[in-house]
Specification:
single chain; 183 residues; alpha+beta; seven-stranded mixed beta sheet; 5 helices; 7 strands; disordered N terminus
Length: 183
């Protein structure tokens, strides 16, 4: 299952960018927006072992796809890695799969909680995989086959990115990729 979000475009000067979240189910696109209050700063575990390997391999594969299309490589951001990892761990721990956390927060809300400010555009791709020998290759392949995920991965708008991975007790792998362009 894959869903994609991108946002921050088209706002007027001085307005706070608002991400536009779109879940795709077949040919139906469902826009979602809801204001939520920021939560306390969460504990975000450092990636270790296989999750850390998956994060870096997925990031390198994404940049290889960008380079093959003549696009600039995105810079890895530790701040965005924390943001992505937080969402992946939350989905794995609380057994859900959505851009919207169980508390109603979205990528921009989570960015606020972590003190990530001054951005012009922010986007998010997520993937959930179980039972694949190479979940990284499958996540990248599926993102590239999905028009909205591909658009996020290959957009010239982005400057920074990171991927956060969590592996649940049952072996499911949750990927969150966050894209960002600062003002």
């Amino acid at each position: 299952m894959l869903v994609s979000a991108i946002g921050g475009y088209g706002q007027r000067a001085g307005e706070r960018p608002v991400p536009i979240l779109v879940d795709e189910i077949g040919s139906m696109r469902l826009p979602k927006r809801k204001a939520v209050s920021a939560a306390e700063r969460p504990f975000i575990p450092r990636a270790a072992g296989i999750a850390k390997t998956y994060e870096r391999n997925a990031f390198e594969q994404m940049n290889a796809e960008r380079a093959a299309k003549g696009l600039a490589r995105l810079e890895w951001s530790d701040q965005l890695a924390d943001l992505a990892r937080w969402h992946s761990y939350d989905m794995a721990d609380r057994k859900y799969f959505s851009h919207r956390s169980k508390d109603g927060s979205t990528v921009d809300d989570r960015a606020d909680v972590l003190g990530i400010a001054g951005w012009r555009a922010i986007g998010e791709n997520i993937a959930f995989l179980r039972g694949y020998d190479d979940p990284v290759a499958m996540a990248i392949q599926n993102w590239l086959l999905s028009p909205s995920h591909r658009r996020n991965m290959l957009s010239g708008v982005w400057r920074e990115s990171a991927i956060g991975v969590a592996v649940s007790d049952d072996g499911a792998v949750y990927f969150t990729q966050v894209f960002l362009t600062r003002k």
